[in-house]
Amino acid sequence: MNHQDPKAPREAVSHETDRIAQNIVDAAFHLHKALGPGLLESVYEVCLAHDLIKRGLKLERQVSLPVFYDGLKMDAGLRLDMLVENDVIVELKAVEKLLPVHKAQVLTYLKLTGHRLALLINFNVPLIRDGIQRIVL
Length: 137
Prior knowledge:
Blueprint: H1 15-35, H2 41-54, E1 59-69, E2 72-84, E3 88-93, H3 100-113, E4 117-122, E5 132-136
Helix pairs in contact: 1-2
């Protein structure tokens, strides 16, 4: 296993990854403006996926994420809400407040997949900018 010094500077994510993330954030802003807070997470997922596909982005929804432990590959029921362009993980929430466990969940997804960037988006906020967290590993 490759352990990095946590204080060592990390490479920035690529320009392409940033472009994808910006498209996702922009789509989330448009979706929140149109529908507002108060709906189920599943509604936001379907609508955001639709908007991203309209923008020409490829994505997968509810991507199964196996866990490798002690030489075994296990289906532990983990699912990524979205994987956009096989590059950016999107985890959606519709909760009163994002909690540390939500960020921990996304960090674990990044570690398990090897991806570098995730967006944690909570649609149940008055202003969507307050509901978006960019998480880089």
